[in-house]
Specification:
Length: about 325
């Protein structure tokens, strides 16, 4: 090859240094989009005086988001993160009144509205729970029991559709999630067993990205143990009370003694205020001990809209309550 030919080959992109030289790495179209996404800003402000200035100026003056709005935007982004498969979150505490059902519904509303669907809240009580009566009603009264009786309808994976589940789950409307209630028939006896849990859980995994499981109070029940074993994340719910706080810690002790692996990193805590004023010393003690035992602790303020024990009116919750649950759900999404 002549010197002229060599220079021509170099101009045309031939590697220098012989045939074994590392070829030049060009940016692909995907690299370009990834870089643009990483450089994207949070956009103009819509809250407070910054948002007011933007609106009054017709957009000519467009301040950036303030710290609170930017944090809110980041929390939503974390809740919306991609999941590479279905994920199950079990809400646990063996004591009644520990805000498990309230937590499942608040998390369902948060994940559903922010992610835009693909979320189901399932009452996995071994007999009868209250998730069904605290969620929006439906035109049917079917529950987990009826779904178990009709599971053969979904045997053919290719022909079964999420719409077919509409006869068993209860849509929560604008909250964009569904509820699968526990048994509500007074004439039925029996409990949900581990095999029953596995069958229903496997079906829900085919149709939903986020499965929120409301557990009962008997942590020795087959379906409770099955839920704890299948969960990608355990959420310990507790109120700022000594008895509910102790019960959650006792449960963590039992799970640790049973050899549950990586328990701290598979668990987080949601601590709710049961009244407008709480014992600050007790709250600090509970936050401290649960921070030692779980990956994070999230405090939820008292909200009178949750006192009646009826349907959880998410849109009527205070801004502080909604923001607290948004932060808690962002931490849950991070853990998944």
């Amino acid at each position: 090859m002549t010197q002229t030919d060599d220079r021509t080959e170099q101009r045309q992109g031939a590697p220098r240094g012989g045939a074994h030289a590392e070829p030049r790495r060009f940016a692909t179209a995907t690299d370009f989009l990834d870089r643009r996404a990483a450089e994207a800003t949070t956009g103009p402000a819509t809250w407070g005086w910054r948002g007011a200035v933007r609106r009054m100026s017709g957009g000519l003056v467009s301040p950036a988001m303030g710290p609170a709005e930017a944090e809110h935007h980041d929390l939503r982004r974390r809740v919306q993160r991609d999941l590479d498969g279905p994920r199950t979150i079990a809400f646990v505490n063996p004591k009644g009144g520990a805000a498990k059902t309230t937590g499942v519904l608040a998390a369902g509303c948060t994940f559903g509205t922010v992610r835009g669907g693909g979320v189901v809240a399932w009452d996995n009580n071994e007999t009868r729970g209250t998730l069904g009566i605290r969620g929006a009603r439906a035109g049917h009264h079917n529950t987990t029991r009826e779904l178990l009786e009709d599971l053969e309808r979904f045997d053919q994976v290719g022909s079964s559709r999420i719409g077919d589940l509409g006869a068993y789950v209860r849509s929560q409307g604008d909250a964009h999630f569904d509820v699968l209630a526990s048994d509500e028939r007074p004439d039925v006896t029996g409990t949900i067993h581990a095999d029953d849990f596995g069958a229903v859980h496997g079906l829900l995994e085919r149709f939903y990205r986020v499965i929120l499981v409301d557990t009962g109070n008997n942590m020795r029940a087959e379906n409770w143990l099955a839920a704890a074993g299948a969960a990608d994340l355990l959420v310990v719910t507790s109120t700022v009370r000594e008895d509910t706080g102790y019960s959650g810690l006792w449960m963590l002790d039992a799970l640790a003694d049973a050899g549950v692996p990586d328990l701290k990193h598979r668990t987080l805590t949601v601590l709710s205020d049961p009244s407008p004023t709480v014992d600050k010393g007790l709250a600090a003690d509970l936050e401290d001990v649960y921070e030692q035992r779980t990956r994070s602790v999230h405090r939820v303020p008292y909200d009178p809209a949750l006192v009646s024990g009826s349907v959880v009116p998410y849109t009527e919750l205070s801004r502080a309550t909604q923001r607290s649950w948004l932060a808690a759900c962002a931490a849950m999404a991070d853990a998944l």
